[in-house]
Write a structure and sequence with these properties.
Pfam families: CofH_C, Radical_SAM. The chain is about 40% helix and about 10% strand. The protein is α/β, with parallel strands linked by helices. The strands form 4 sheets. A 4-stranded mixed beta sheet has the order 11-1-12-13. Strand 12 and strand 13 form a beta hairpin. The protein binds iron/sulfur cluster.
């Protein structure tokens, strides 16, 4: 691995007392893997430099076999919409080009910028249209807009600070061109008419309680009451603080992420978990991250799927400032997916993200341990703004053609996987059927929903 331009002096490095052969034997036998085992598999052995192609294939084969044992030949996807509320954010994560400095959004900034903020009514309109197309899930992950608060009481508490902008990253909505409303108002707007709302990452949950003595559990309970149905375990990046210190020093720490996720589970919300790899971290950090997720799942059982996300480096500060010289190689991607499958013996589904990897490589990862192929994503701002070349939208027909082409069975699923439908490639029309208004019509043939607000 030669991505990191600097040596960060990390305490954790990929050195182990294990051998590749032992780790592979444990993986093949279905034994629970240690962090050292994970490192041996991710590196194809720390006894030599670089990835050994023969050993890599052995790891991929073991993972593919495990996938077949655990979930069979089905490849799932969900009909979903991305509705991100705002790109205003001050957190300054160095891997992110989604955010725009929040000051640009202020009424008197005079700065021309490409960002956006949606009011609850605007979010509602986007969701209403998507539901009429047959969408099931609304995914919403947003920047940490300084005017976003949980509710009116939270606004009052934040405004009561002597220097709220500096102390609690708060400015009142009147300062901005567009008022994003409160988190609870956005939840209500996006969950109406039966939409499954997948939102409020641990980082957003932290923003929703900042400056108060409220717990994550308080926040998630109220968000769930307002319509939140499941939680994306993003903002995880790498759950080792020495890596977070480099790539996202303004973000919550590993312990906070875990605490928030446990709270979401306590409230009964299903959740996903992610890893974003291929920047400054090494294979020891990746394996340690997997251990944090597996431990969390041992305690909660609420993680429905694990989502490996390869860092898209172009146009991010990490790349532009020369802190990294690129992202992960595809061999590393294959091994990350495979070792995720082998290490996370308590998480049923592993996702291949076509937005991050593209169609061809995304399909290949389905033979490395992955069994979920993400969602239709009617709008996808995040990856596009980071310079990713894959984009926008995947129809049910696309899914069926791609999944059957690799000899697997296409299955439309609900977010929590409890509802599934095997899609017959011959059926016409070929569209989603699980959404509250879905009748099998292809997603882009919009039916006009009645204006109800
Ligand atoms: S990753 Fe999230 S919190 Fe970090 S800068 Fe981007 S939008 Fe803000």
């Amino acid at each position: 691995m030669d991505r990191a331009v600097d040596d960060f002096g990390f305490e954790h490095v990929p050195e182990t007392d294990q051998s590749f052969e032992n780790a592979l034997a444990k993986a093949r036998a279905g034994d629970r893997l240690t962090v050292d085992d994970g490192v041996e598999l991710l590196t194809t052995g720390t006894d030599h430099e670089g990835i050994d192609p023969r050993r890599k294939e052995q790891v991929l084969e073991a993972a593919d076999r495990r996938r077949a044992e655990v979930v069979g030949e089905e490849v799932t996807f969900v009909a979903n919409l991305n509705n991100n509320v705002t790109t205003a954010c001050n957190t300054g994560c160095l891997f992110c080009n989604f955010k725009d400095t929040a000051a640009n959004f202020e009424r008197d900034s005079g700065v021309d910028h490409p960002g956006f903020t949606k009011t609850p009514a605007e979010s509602r309109a986007v969701v209403r249209d998507a539901l009429s197309r047959g969408v099931y899930e609304v995914t919403s992950v947003s920047g940490l807009h300084p005017a976003l608060a949980l509710d009116a009481e939270h606004h009052e508490i934040l405004a009561g600070y002597d220097a709220p902008a500096n102390q609690v990253n708060y400015k009142p909505p009147e300062r901005y061109d567009t008022d994003p409303g409160t988190y609870l108002e956005q939840m209500r707007a996006m969950s109406r008419d039966g939409a499954h709302l997948h939102s409020m990452t641990p980082e957003e949950a932290y923003h929703a309680i900042r400056g108060t003595d409220w717990s994550y559990e308080d926040a998630y309970r109220r968000l769930a009451d307002a319509g939140l149905a499941s939680v994306p375990g993003t903002a995880a990046e790498i759950l080792v603080d020495e890596v977070r210190d480099v790539i996202c020093p303004g973000k919550i720490r590993t312990d906070d992420w875990v605490e928030a996720m446990e709270a979401a589970a306590t409230v009964g919300l299903p959740m996903t978990a992610t890893v974003m790899y291929g920047h400054v971290e090494n294979e020891m950090h990746r394996a340690m991250h997997l251990k944090v997720v597996r431990d969390l799942q041992d305690r909660t059982g609420n993680i429905t799927e694990f989502v490996p996300l390869s860092f898209v480096h172009r146009t991010t500060p990490l790349y532009e400032r020369g802190i990294v010289s690129g992202g992960a190689t595809f061999e590393e991607d294959e091994l990350m997916v495979a070792v995720s499958r082998l290490f996370l013996d308590n998480v049923e589904h592993v996702q291949s993200s076509w937005v991050k990897y593209g169609d061809e490589r995304g399909l290949k990862l389905l033979s490395c341990g992955a069994d979920d192929f993400m969602g239709t994503i009617l709008s996808e701002e995040i990856t596009k703004r980071a310079g990713g070349s894959e984009g926008e939208f995947r129809s049910v027909r696309d899914y069926v053609e791609m999944i059957t082409a690799v000899g697997r069975v296409p299955v439309e699923r609900s977010t929590d996987y409890r509802t599934r439908r095997v899609v017959d490639p011959e059926e016409r029309p070929l569209g989603p059927t699980l959404g509250p208004q879905a009748d099998g019509t292809p997603l882009m043939a919009s039916q006009t929903a009645p204006a109800d607000d």
